[in-house]
Amino acid sequence: MPQGFSFTVLAQSAGGRAGRLVTPHGEAATPVFMPVGTAASVKGLTPEEVSGSGASLILANTYHLMLRPGTEVIRRAGGVGRFMSWDGPVLTDSGGYQVLSLARRRTIDDQGVRFCSHVDGEWVTLTPENAMEIQGALRSDIAMALDECPPAEASAEDHEKAMKRTTAWARRCVAARRLDTQALFGILQGGVDPSLRKRHLEELSGLDLDGFALGGLGIGETPEATAEVIRAVAPILPGDKPRYLMGLGTPRDIIRAVMSGVDMFDCVLPTRNGRNGQAFVLEGRINIRNARHAEDPEPLDPACRCPVCRRFDRRYLHHLFVCREMLGPRLLSLHNLHHYGDLMRTLRRAILDGTLEEAAKELLSRPDKEEAES
Fold this sequence. Notes:
Elements: E1 6-13, E2 16-23, E3 26-30, E4 32-34, H1 47-52, E5 58-61, H2 62-77, H3 80-83, E6 90-93, H4 97-101, E7 106-108, E8 113-116, E9 123-126, H5 128-138, E10 142-144, H6 156-175, E11 183-188, H7 194-205, E12 211-214, H8 223-233, E13 243-245, H9 251-258, E14 264-266, H10 269-275, E15 278-281, E16 284-287, H11 307-311, H12 314-322, H13 327-353, H14 356-365, E17 369-370
Parallel strand pairs: 4-14, 5-6, 6-10, 10-11, 11-12, 12-13, 13-14, 16-17
Antiparallel strand pairs: 1-2, 2-3, 7-8, 8-9, 15-16
């Protein structure tokens, strides 16, 4: 166990766990949602605004930061947290997702991955060893092992190969750890086949890992298949270590995953959708660009007490988007992060009170309408 890192389960209810994650840069109460700060910035928001939403832990991306501003710039700044003036813990993704997302601009073999940089077109190599070296320079509290993430339509043979390679890479990441204060999480692959996922867990469980993540979901498979994998695999991840669901995160996804024992979440939805005019509210999701909001004096969500809902109404927010004022995307992103923060606090409180089943039933009974753009 790294210095200054610990995880304790404090209570359980209806399959959910409330815990305390301690890192060298602070604590996070779990279940926890991590806003995505890919390039050392939660887009459009200051660190104070992010922490004010209830976020205690954020995510940054190794691949993007190694390209720009560059590993050495951040090393000399004292790490990614100090670089971006974020006082809390940081988790860094290894860059393995780019194995999938940049499929037409990369080559992969057992040694690692070669990418054609989207910044300058230069070829860049990412191996388990330099992924750990870079994350050590970033001084994140939690590093992710490099993994291979096959596409949703991959064959069973391709998933088998990716599992074998991901296990080998995780073993090399363990051997290449640079910081005695940095936790290392492994990533389970196996597509939508629970038996493959369970077999991959058996392989990874023998390694010196401090947490386990479910990767390779939300990339094109059906929602039903995703839910089945989470229900089957999340509860059997090691109970004394954090369980992390990577990249998935509608509110309903989170509620159901918490009931399967997941502790940690990240997703771009709150900020990306906010930048595009979509707000998460009690009635589902609304599109503030729509004409029906042009003269609406109500806040985004009358039940919300965030700074946006306390001060601004829908007609003003609609105006900002119509006029392409940058304040509009900022305010909706901030509201959405508060919406997610409120959800995590509600779920955690219900677990501590032993009422998660009832709370989840009430939350899932709420409308889930998504207002189309018109």
